[in-house]
Every structure is written in structure tokens, then in C-alpha cells.
Model the fold of this input.
Amino acid sequence: MLINELKRAFKWKKFVGFIVVMIIINLYSICIELGEFNPFYDMHLSIQEAVDIGDLNQFALFTNAGVTYVGFIPIVCSFVYGLSFLEDRKKGFNKFINLRISNSKYCISKFLANGIVGGLSAALPSIIIFYVLNVFVGGDIHNTSIAIPGIFDDLSQSKPYVFILVFITMEFLVGFAYSTIALAASTLLDNQILVLLAPGVFYYVTNYITDTLNFPLKFKTKVATEFGLLADGVTGYEVTIQLIVITLIFGAVFFHYSRKEFTYER
Done:
């Protein structure tokens, strides 16, 4: 069932379209980063010269641009597959599926497929972008004088490619966690727009509340998208735990309200 759900998602034209749009957003983030780079301040005659000598390299561009890109993930990660369960429920497809497999197996497959698609929607554009930077820009992290920010900055110096893998994995986890919010909302709401907006609303509302109440940084939802910017006050472990907690809470909401006694009566 899980394989069928994933095939259903990846065959949709909007998955390809979404990936293209996210690549454009990523490229836009890189353009912003290049626009903020002052070659004369660093004693370079041009950005091209900075690239040639390695001061402006694939790692610096990808990471600094990624800080802007990650901020979009909670808002858009559910656009590809977030309405799948709602469409099944409104059209009664889930009832026919339950004739072949149990509702619990159907819901588990839907939960995993939704999270995987949400995660890949966030991570795949970054993989493509880094490959492009690796081919056309390149460079050695040890030659740069530009700071690589974020809670994984030590890793970026010692094992830069592992750092990139960790960075993209965090993007995947953010996409997985926040797409689960839309999935949970689809069991309670019938309006498609409200379901798609649910992850972004949750992110901004909880971020405002935790900021206003002056919560410790590790309890603020903004760390999920600012891990590439924060220098201290939170660890990668704590960010990961936060994303797991979000996934478990909204996953529990989904599994509770996707039971037959709730979905069959609507």
C-alpha cells in the first residue's frame, strides 16, 4: 500500500512542478546571497575571482542561501500530497480501500507516504542545487574566509560533505514533520485551503507565542528553520527532538481521527 501511495504522489505533475518551483526559490536565495557578497570588502576584484580562489565556494553559497530556503518549508511542504487523505475521505475512496486492507494499514501507509513526500519535496531541490554548485562552482571549505553559520558549523570545517548531508537531512525532517500537521488537519477540516495553510499557521502562531512568552530557545519552533543560522543556545539533537515531537503529536491526532467511526460518518 505504501508503494502505491508513493507512486500516486510521484506520478502527479504537481510534484515535478513543485520541485521546479522550490529549485527556483533556492536559486533566488543564492542570488540574494551573491547580492549581499561584497567582493571589494574582501579585497577581490570580482565575484568570479572570489569563486576562482575558493573564498566563495559551493559550501558557503549553499549554506547561507539555505537559511532563506528552509524558511519556506513549513509553509509549502504539504502542497504536493497534503490533501491526499482529505480527497480520499470526501470521495469515499477510503471505504473501498478498506475492503481490501484494514483501515490501520491504510492509515499507516498514508502517514508514511505523506511524510516521505513532504520531506523529499523539501530535500530534493537542495540535492539538485548542491550538485549544480559542486559542478559549476566547487571550491574547498578551508580556503574561505566567509563564515559558515549554524549549529553544525564545526562539522562544516572538519567534514564538509557530511555537513551538507546533515543539512539536507534536517530539511527532510522539517518537511516530514510539518506535512504531518496538514495530514492531521485533513481529518478535522473539509476546506482544502485551510488544510494546506495549517502547517504555516502552526509555525508562525507557535513561534509568536514562544517568543512573546520568552521560552528557552530549544522550545521555540523557529529553531526548526533557523538551525543553519543559530550559533548557540540549541543543539542539533534538540532540534531533531522538537521535530520528532511535532510528528508524534500530529501523527497521533491523525491516527485517532482517521478511525472508521470518525471518517465514515462524515
The CA atoms of residues 75 and 247 lie 16 Å apart. Residues 2-263 form one domain. The chain has one domain: 2-263. The chain has a mean pLDDT of 82.
